[in-house]
Design brief:
Blueprint lengths: L5 H7 L6 E4 L4 E7 L3 E4 L2 E15 L4 E13 L2 E3 L2 E9 L4 E3 L2 E3 L1 E4 L4 E3 L2 E3 L8 H14 L2
Parallel strand pairs: 1-3, 2-4, 3-4, 4-5, 5-6, 5-7, 6-8, 7-9, 7-10, 8-11, 9-12
């Protein structure tokens, strides 16, 4: 029987090419950034920038950093501010100490959240907000 190619292996493993993992024994100090999703079970100190992707802090993970991502899922411990373009999911075993800016927020029973929360409305490109801005601009330019 022939062995599957690398591309076939990545198709068989749903966690493969789209997610990086920081294991339990790893400690990273500094800036961590990338263009794929990230799973953290180790420790990071510094900044985490995965804009447009998902950052998951596992149950053994510990992060002392500001995080910027599309979506953040917290099962472990985070100390730092979080900026999400989509949503923050703070699970029941997770804890967050820091401020949050997001469009959607999910906080599980038993989780710990210490800090400020700002939930921003989703801006639709063809929505009323642009129509109002256009009317305001035309009214401002009319004498």
């Amino acid at each position: 029987m022939s062995q599957p190619s690398d591309s076939q292996k990545s198709q068989l493993n749903p966690n493969s090419p789209e997610r990086s993992t920081i294991g339990r024994s790893l400690v990273i100090k500094g800036e961590v950034s990338g263009t794929e999703s990230l799973y953290i079970d180790g420790r990071i100190e510094g900044t985490v920038d995965f804009s447009g992707n998902v950052v998951t802090i596992g149950s053994k993970g510990s992060v002392a950093a500001n995080i910027s991502a599309s979506e953040v899922v917290i099962l472990g411990e985070v100390q730092g501010n979080i900026q999400c373009t989509d949503r923050l999911d703070l699970r029941s075993e997770g804890s967050l100490t820091g401020d949050v800016v997001t469009q959607r927020l999910s906080v599980g029973d038993g989780s710990i959240l210490k800090g400020g929360v700002q939930v921003r409305a989703v801006e639709q490109k063809t929505g009323k907000s642009q129509q109002v801005k256009a009317k305001q601009a035309s009214a401002a330019s009319t004498p």
